[in-house]
Design brief:
It is a single chain. The chain is α/β, with parallel strands linked by helices. It folds into 2 domains: about 260 residues, ANL, N-terminal domain (Rossmann fold); about 100 residues, GMP Synthetase, Chain A, domain 3, CATH 3.30.300.30. Helices cover about 30% and strands about 25% of the residues. A 9-stranded mixed sheet has the order 4-3-5-6-7-8-9-14-13. α8 links the parallel β5 and β6. The two termini are about 30 Å apart. Bound molecules: 5'-O-[hydroxy(phenylacetyl)phosphoryl]adenosine (DLL). The site of 5'-O-[hydroxy(phenylacetyl)phosphoryl]adenosine (DLL) has 21 residues, from α6, β7, β8 and β12. The site of 5'-O-[hydroxy(phenylacetyl)phosphoryl]adenosine has 21 residues, from α6, β7, β8 and β12.
């Protein structure tokens, strides 16, 4: 364990730390973030009303829309000069969700990622290949700082160029891998093509997350790589990766509760549900300086288990993510909201407002096809014009969302109409089911 004392701390002591940090956080956001002052005033709550962990339930929620309304830095609780890093993730439409970190926040992030890597016994003896993307996405740098904190040797290779990745893995004697689970499967496929036997390499553990994956996928990765595959969870708004992690028991993900308080609510009523019941994950940052979000609604569906784990860690465990309460998709590691695609189509303006996304897995890679209805006139135009329009949409989606899609222009009324909500997405991947 990276931090045995904190990871196995008895519950009453942990709750004492939480209460103290929560109280301070509420006081700070009340004084420094106009948005929270307004919200707390409207709910008739004063910072001094928050004294125990139970008081958390009284606080109002924060949503992605709130971040959007205060784009880009409006929810920061420190002066701009104290922010040393920003990252960003997808917004629901045009604008990204921007998150910030002070120097201490980077320290906290390194600590929770060090614990995460410690869950797979990574130490200074290890060589870790970080194949999450480096950049605005939190995956690469998050894993990187955690790995440096534990003293492992980091190979900051980022995503892509799989043949080179494999060569590095073999030549450097890499022992740990961090990437999305689908990329891990793609590794195995490419290795087979290249005649490389990953099973016989020193690689022993993988830290996979940033997208949902099934139990079957885990079995496949573990078998084909001969490693332990650990599920790691997080989201940019809270810190990035390092919010929770499985240990080697692989029986739920420990939430690092001295930094992030966790609740499960009924997404319809907003009420906290009892342990063991399914609902929406809500996190409160109690140690962050730049962006301490209060009761942030993740839209991820899970279950909480409060009992001490066989590994000895006392921090509550969450079930692997079981679904979403909204229509966000994660395609090749990129968060995609159908509404973003809709904005692109509206912007281009040459199509009808009827479209459908078809997501599938070709081999081990996610594949996105977008069907878009065009008017009779465009449809009967020359092929060249149609191709031009297809390319334009494809290019725009690549530049705005960062993913490539196949575009299929179809005749009016091809896409099935629905009487209620339009069915915008057909996802054939089945990632949440097992
Ligand atoms: O994906 C942070 C991360 C990076 C986590 C690397 C793990 C490893 P975002 O881009 O903000 O942050 O996307 C957050 O991804 O709300 C979930 O829906 C989904 N997600 C993240 N980890 C998992 C996981 C990063 N282990 C969103 N299982 C979250 C299922 C996950 N879904």
């Amino acid at each position: 364990m990276w931090n045995r004392e904190m990871e196995t701390i008895p519950r009453p002591q942990l709750e004492k730390i939480q209460a103290e940090r929560l109280r301070k956080t509420v006081e700070r956001v009340y004084n420094n973030v106009p948005f929270y002052r307004r919200k707390l005033d409207a709910a008739n709550i004063k910072p001094e009303d928050i004294q125990t962990v139970k008081d958390l339930e009284r606080l109002p929620f924060t949503t992605k829309q709130d971040l959007r309304d205060n784009y880009p830095f409006g929810l920061f609780a420190v002066p701009r000069e104290e922010v040393v890093r920003v990252h960003a993730s997808s917004g629901t439409t045009g604008k990204m969700t921007v998150v910030g970190y002070t120097r201490n926040d980077i320290g906290t992030w390194s600590e929770v990622m060090a614990r995460t890597l410690g869950c797979g016994n990574v130490t200074e003896k290890d060589i870790i290949q970080v194949a999450y993307g480096y950049g605005l996405f939190t995956g690469g740098l998050g894993a990187h700082y955690g790995a440096e904190r534990v003293g492992a040797m980091v190979v900051p290779i980022s995503g892509g160029n799989t043949k080179r990745q494999l060569q590095v893995m073999v030549d450097f004697n890499v022992t740990a891998l961090a990437c999305t689970p689908s990329y891990a499967l793609y590794f195995t496929e490419t290795a087979a093509e290249e005649g490389i036997d990953i099973r016989s390499l020193p690689l022993r553990v993988g830290f996979f997350g940033a997208e949902p994956w099934s139990h079957n996928m885990r079995k496949e990765i573990e078998e084909k790589m001969n490693i332990k595959a650990i599920d790691i969870y997080g989201l940019s708004e809270i810190i990035g990766p390092g919010v929770s992690s499985e240990c080697l028991e692989q029986d739920g993900l420990h939430v690092w509760e001295d930094h992030f308080m966790v609740e499960i609510i009924d997404p319809n009523t907003g009420q906290v549900v009892p342990y063991g019941e399914k609902g929406e994950l809500v996190f409160t940052c109690i140690s962050k300086e730049a962006l301490p979000l209060i009761r942030y609604r993740t839209r991820d569906i899970s279950i909480l288990y409060p009992d001490v784990c066989r590994c000895g860690r006392t921090h509550k465990r969450m079930n692997r993510v079981m679904g979403r309460t909204d229509d966000m998709l994660i395609i090749r590691g990129v968060n995609v909201f159908p509404s973003q695609i809709e904005s692109v189509l509206l912007e281009i303006g040459e199509t009808e407002p009827h479209y459908q996304l078809i997501v599938d897995r070709e081999g081990n890679l996610d594949d996105l096809e977008i069907w878009v209805e065009v008017s009779e006139k465009i449809f009967s135009d020359e092929i060249k014009k149609m191709e031009e329009l297809e390319n334009k949409i494809k290019k725009e989606i690549l530049s705005i969302l960062g993913i490539s899609a196949r575009i299929k222009l179809v005749e009016p009324k091809t896409i099935a109409r629905s009487e209620g909500k339009a069915k915008r997405v057909i996802d054939r991947r089945d990632v949440y089911t097992k």
